[in-house]
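Sequence decides. Consider this:

===
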Amino acid sequence: MKQPHQQIPAVIPTVEPDEELLVVSFDGSARVKRGGGACSAIIWKLPEWTVVAAESKYLPDLTVNEAEY
């Protein structure tokens, strides 16, 4: 008989009022057959979630490693 999975309590991170932290998000996609693709990145400053920088680009030489799919 299978045993139930053990539940691990999640630790929710907090930001103290006197701390200044950065959060970075990145995403992108590439075309498999023709090459090229786009990517975007954004940087926020915590705790107020102010956008520090954001950029999107088209990269004509971007390729996909099809072996990963």
In short: The CA atoms of residues 39 and 57 lie 6 Å apart.
